[in-house]
Structures are given as C-alpha cells and as structure tokens.
UniProtKB/TrEMBL annotation:
Residues 49-129 form the Thioredoxin domain. SUPFAM superfamilies: Thioredoxin-like. Pfam families: Thioredoxin. This is Thioredoxin family protein. CDD domains: TRX_family. It comes from Streptacidiphilus cavernicola. Gene3D superfamilies: Glutaredoxin. InterPro entries: Thioredoxin-like_sf, Thioredoxin_domain.
Length: 136
C-alpha cells in the first residue's frame, strides 16, 4: 500500500510541475541586464526598429512554430527583422546569454539592446506587445 501512495505523490508533484512550466513558458519577460548584441554576433543585420532573435535547435518542434509566428510578425511590422540562430553552432553566444532551452526568443531594440526575453513558444499577441516596448 505504501508503494501506491508514493506513486500517487510522484504523479501529483510531476503533474503540478508540468502545469507550472507550461503556464510560465513562452512569456516575454522584461530583461535589464545591459545585454547588447551586434550584427557580427547575430550574423545578420539588425532591424531598423527592432530585431526578433530566435535560438533554435534542429529537432525542436516548438521552434518551427515559433519561427512561423516571428516571421509573420516581422512581416507585419515595418523595420523589424527576424534572425534565427542555431543554438548548437553558436555555443559561446548561448553560454553568454544563458540560453538553457529552445526556443528562446530575444526582442532587441534598434541598437541591439535586449528589451524582452521568452523561453518557450510565445504567443503572437505577446510578441507584438513586446515589439511595442522595443520601438517606443
């Protein structure tokens, strides 16, 4: 009978952790760490108004959906660029920015300063709101 209670406790705790992680994932949070990225580091030009930087990996399913969302938003807002970076090929940058999971999305202003950061797949409305903060 004790084994059954242990099993139930493990299931409840892991389910709670899964719900918490799903709820917090993809939220664009304000970052004030003085991080600034250059065109050389990104391997692509910065957008005139803002840049959406996506760190992805080859076998990441949410990365594909995130790429589609960011591409659509960048196409809707003039002066916004979307840059996708393969996390496995840019390990120095990944370590410097403390990227622990893919997809990770960074919203940069026109000067390359980090304005918002999301771990997980962000919603389109959240990306548009973060761009509003970046171009203001």
């Amino acid at each position: 009978m004790t084994g059954l209670w242990v099993c139930v406790a493990v299931l409840v705790l892991s389910g709670g952790y899964g719900l918490l992680r799903a709820r917090r994932g993809g939220r664009l949070k304000v970052r004030d760490g003085g991080v600034r990225l250059s065109e050389r580091e990104l391997g692509a030009p910065l957008g005139e108004r803002a840049t959406l930087v996506q760190f992805s990996s080859a076998f990441c399913q949410p990365c594909r959906a995130t790429k589609r969302v960011l591409g659509e938003v960048a196409g809707m807002v003039e002066g916004v660029a979307h840059v996708e970076i393969d996390a496995e090929s840019q390990l120095d940058l990944v370590r410097r920015l403390d990227i622990l999971r893919t997809p990770t999305v960074l919203v940069l202003d026109a000067d390359g300063a980090l304005v918002r950061r999301a771990v997980g797949q962000p919603r389109r409305a959240d990306v548009i709101a973060a761009l509003g903060a970046a171009v203001a």
